[in-house]
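Recall that a protein's primary structure is simply its ordered list of amino acids. Everything else, from secondary elements to tertiary packing, is in principle encoded there. The following example makes that idea concrete.
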Amino acid sequence: MFASEFIKKSWKLYLFIILISFPPLIDIFKTADLPHTSDGAMHLARFAAYYKEFTAGQFPVRWASQFNYGYGTPIFNFFHPLPYLAGIPLIALGLSLVNVLKVSFSFTYILAGVFMLMFSRFLFKDEKKALLVTVMYQFAPFRFVEMLVRGSLGSLYAYMILPLVFYAVVKFLDKSTYLHFILIAVSVALLSMSHNIIGFVFFAISVFYLFFTKANLKKTAAVYFAMAAGLGMAGFYLIPAMIEHKYTYGYLLTKDLFYEHFPPFYKFIIPNITNTAKLRIAEVSIQIGLFHILGLLITIYLLIRGKLQKMKLLAIYSLVVTAVALLFMQPVTKPIWENVSFIRQFQFSWRLLAVICFTSSLTSVFIYQMKFFQKRMVYFGLIILIIISTVYYWVPYQGYQKVSQEFYWNYPKSTNYFGEINSIWMAGEPKEYPKSRIDIIAGQAEVSNVKLFPELHRFLVSAKTQATLLDYTQFYPGWKVIVDNNPASIQFQDMNHRGLITFNVPAGDHIVSVQYTQNRLQTASNLISILLVLVLVTGIFIYRGKNII
C-alpha cells in the first residue's frame, strides 16, 4: 500500500526523490571542514573573487583583480559563470565559503533528480518507469565522483540542467506553446554557462536527440531556433570566451594531457568498492555502474529481439550516444584527439562518462519491459539495490581539510592549474606581490594620492620630465589609461615588463586613471544577450500561451 501510494501521487513521487537524495549528502554536513577534492578549494577562491568583483560594480564579471598576486586575470571571461553567479545570494545571506560550496553541491544534486523526474514522467507517461530512470540518474556512481572526489561544481550544474533541457524539448514537441519555446531557450542558456566542456557535450547530445524523435520539420526547426536563442542569451559569456581565447595560452600547456587518460575498458565495469588505485585514473574512479550496464545490456537484447517497437528510437539514441562516448574514451581514437584541437580541450577522455550517466539511466526504462522486474517486490527491491550499491561513494575518500576563510577571501595565486588563462603577453605567473602598485621606470616623476579599486587605479603624477609609468597589472583588452581625461596609449610589450601596463605622461601635474572596462567585443556580446532577452520577453505578450506552430 505504501509503495502504491508513492506511485499514484505525483507530489509524493517528487518528495520521495528529494528524500532519497539526502543520504549521499549527509557526510559533508557532519563537519565544518571542506571535503578534500580536486577543485573544491579553488572554488572557494573563485566564489570570493566573483562576489567582490560583482559587489564592486563589475557585471558581467570578467576580471578578477586579486588573483596573480594583484596583477589580476581575466579568468571569469573564460570560466563558466553560472556556479559563481549562483553563489552571490548565498554569500549575501552570510554563508561561509565552505558552506556555499556544500549547499551548491546539495541543491544541484537534488534538483537534478527533480528535473529528471519531470522529464521522464512526461516522456514515458508511467510513474514506475519515471521513478526507475530518475533513481538510476541520481545514483550513477560517476556523479558522486564528480561531486566528492573531483569537486567539479560546473559539471554538477550541467547534470542538473540537462534533464531540464530535455523536458523543455519534449514538452514543446508535444504542445508548441511560446512558454515551452522560452523554456528551451532559458535552459540551453543555463547549460551553456554551467561548464565549458560538459555543458558543450550535453548541448550536443540534446541537439542530436531531435534526430530520434518523430517530430515534423517545423517543430524540429523551432526547437533548434529556440536552442540558438539560448546560446544567444548566453552570448555575453560564450562569444568572448571563444573569440578572445587567442589572447591566452589556452590549452597550449595541456594539449598532451589526453595521452595519460585513456582508461582500460575493465575500469568502467568493475565497481571500486575498496577504492583501489588499480580501478582509478589518478584519484578518479570511472565506473559506469552495474545496474546501468544491466540497462544497456537489456536494451541491446530487446532491440535485437525486436521487442522495442514503441520506444525503439529512444533505445537506438541511447545506445548510439553511449557507444560514441565509450569509443572516444579508448586509445583507438588517439589520431582524432591528436589532430582535432577542439577535442584536446576536453583534456581527459573519461569526462565523457557524464554522457553515459544520462544515456544509461534512460535505458533503465527497458529493464521495466522485462516482466520479472514488473513484480512489485522485485521492482522496489531493484530501487533499493541501485541506491545502496553506491554507498561507498557517499564519503569523500580523500577526507576533509581545514581551511581559512580569510585566506580564500584574499587568495593571492591563480586558480587555474596550467596557466591557461594567462595572457600571451605575460612572461609567466607572478610569484609575489609587487612592492608598489605604481612605479616610475623612466624619467623624473612622483606618484601620490594612490586610490585602488578592483577595476580602477587612480593617482596623481607630478612629472619634471616626460615619464614612463608601470602599473603592475596584467594587460588585457579592456584596460585603459586616462591622463587628464584624455586616453593614453598602453605599451604592454616592454621586454623588461612583459604583459604589464606601461604608459607615458608628459611633464607637469596630472590626474591618471587606469581602469578596466568591457571591450568592444564584450560590449557587443552583452548587447546581443540583452536584445535576445528583450525579444523573448516581448513575445510573451504577443503569444500569451498560444501555439506558435
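The domain at 438-517 is CATH 2.60.40 (Immunoglobulin-like). The two ends are 44 Å apart (CA to CA).
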